[in-house]
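To whoever is on call:

I kicked off a structure prediction for a single chain this morning and the downstream step that reads the tokens threw a length-mismatch warning. I double-checked the sequence; it's 143 residues and nothing unusual in it as far as I can see. Pasting both halves so you can look.
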Amino acid sequence: MPNPVVVGVDGSRTAYKAAEVARNLAVALNAPLLVVSAFDSDRTEVRRTGNEEFIISAAGDAERAAERVVQSLQGHGVEVTHSIAHGKPADALVEEAARVEARMIVVGNRRMRGVGRVLGSVANSVAHSATCDVYIANTYDAE
């Protein structure tokens, strides 16, 4: 995959808004888009309903979140793929972007104001540790 635009998603509306921005940037740059969802727990639960058994895991939740975004972004003239990565969201996103030699990482600005600004945010962490360009999308209107 040639130098994709990478975006991190977690199933939230603000992450989806960032993914839309990332798609538009990928189209403008004629680059593929890689949707990444992180999970930092190896939690797995087994739930039974009647005769059926369901296995629920953090990795599975991350996979489903990424797949939903990929499906919604298809058909705009850009190749959209996804991956999941184990670790804290910012670290996982930066590592995945480095692995694929990303052209750019797109993150939303959720939690970059108020107490989140003091305690840190994914966007802040990514901006300080990425080895490629970082685009911080304004996602406040998606909250």
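Update from on-call: the warning came from a stale cache, not from the record. Cleared it. Sanity check on the structure: Confidence is low (pLDDT under 50) at residues 112-119.
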